[in-house]
Specification:
It is a single chain. With about 325 residues, the protein is an alpha/beta fold. It folds into 2 domains: about 1-195, inorganic pyrophosphatase (n-terminal core) (Alpha-Beta Complex); about 200-315, Diaminopimelate Epimerase, Chain A, domain 1 (Roll). It contains 12 helices and 11 strands. The strands form 2 sheets. A 6-stranded mixed β-sheet has the order 6-7-8-9-11-10. It is globular. The relative contact order is 0.11. The structure holds manganese (II) ion (MN). Manganese (II) ion binds near residues 26 and 127.
């Protein structure tokens, strides 16, 4: 598949690069790594993400050039859609993106729907950035420091700082290559993990207070409500990774974070250890993701939503 993408890149001039709503390190890092690479070989590149760039990713080279709406008069030869299990993950501009002549789907979600005209989808890949790295090697495009910083950050964050089950030899190999090019791991870690606003810790305190342990100690729930955001001044992006706290409890196999999006509507994030496939659970709720990290959206009161999730998780714990 890479050969077809290489051909598309060589033949064309104007590219859109889009990634998923509520972006995190892999969505942003992959998009920027590809964008800088294509610019370096003389292409016209527009990077779109409908949502703001999380504060701790704003050190990434070129992040300020990401646009959050697509001007209808722009014409693209092809669109790269990165780190999206389905095309609708790009958000509000989906109709404009759908009309682009060629859609190139590059992703590593096990739940990827196979959308697009050309696909580079590999659920064995640690991150979408790992696929971008392979593509750059294929073209070939020289990996500069700016590109390396984006790729390293994407791999670091998507593997949960090299802790999650997608922490493969490939992930370490790429990380090592990026360090060789000049990336400084401790300064990236500082930017990502050690420059949090105080509001995040205040929010975390409230969230941890909602902890419930169920299913004979194997399931842990935590909740984030709209009023907690109001009380602490924290923003939703700061809840990223909070589900790892309940997951860290001895004996817990599945941790769930329920985030109130609006009245009777919750975004639900799942984390599991290797015994339980939470991509499968998320799919049941119209979501998707990876075997040990996934998410979806569920309507209903908090009690109803918790009930549905408890049932879906319990039946996989026997
Ligand atoms: Mn990813």
């Amino acid at each position: 598949m890479e050969a077809k993408i290489v051909e598309e890149i060589k033949r064309n001039k104007a590219f859109l690069i889009a990634s998923h709503i509520n972006p995190e390190g892999d969505a942003i890092g992959s998009a920027l790594a590809l964008a800088i690479s294509l610019k370096n070989i003389g292409k016209e590149v527009t990077v779109f993400n409908q949502d703001p760039i999380p504060r701790n990713l704003q050190f990434l080279p070129m992040n300020t050039e990401i646009i959050n709406e697509i001007n209808g008069s722009l014409v693209f030869d092809a669109a790269f859609v990165l780190d999206c299990g389905d095309l609708d993950r790009v958000g509000k501009e989906i109709e404009k993106i759908r009309k682009i002549r060629k859609i190139i789907n590059i992703d590593h979600h096990v739940t990827n729907s196979g959308f697009g005209d050309i696909r580079l989808v590999d659920s064995q890949s640690s991150s979408t950035a790992e696929l971008i790295y392979a593509l750059l090697k294929d073209i070939p495009i020289e990996i500069t420091y700016e590109i390396a910083l984006n790729i390293y950050t994407a791999v670091l964050t998507d593997t949960g700082a090299f802790c999650n089950s997608n922490t493969t030899e490939g992930a370490f190999h790429i990380a090592s290559e990026m360090v060789r090019i000049g990336v400084n791991p401790s300064s990236v870690a500082e930017k990502i993990y050690q420059e949090m606003p105080v509001s995040r810790l205040k929010l975390l305190g409230l969230v941890l207070n909602t902890l419930e342990i169920l299913g004979n100690g194997r399931i842990a729930f935590v909740v984030v409500t709209l009023s907690m955001f109001k009380k602490t001044g924290a923003t939703p992006e700061l809840t990223e990774d909070m589900v790892n706290y309940p997951r860290s409890i001895l004996g817990v196999k599945v941790a769930v974070l329920f985030r109130e999006v609006s009245k009777n509507y919750y975004k639900v994030s799942f984390r599991s250890n290797k015994d339980v496939d939470v991509a499968d659970i998320a799919r049941e709720f119209g979501g998707g993701g990876h075997p040990n990290a996934s998410g979806g959206n569920i309507g209903g009161s908090l009690l109803e939503v918790k009930g549905k999730v408890f049932e879906a998780v319990s039946k996989r714990l026997n």
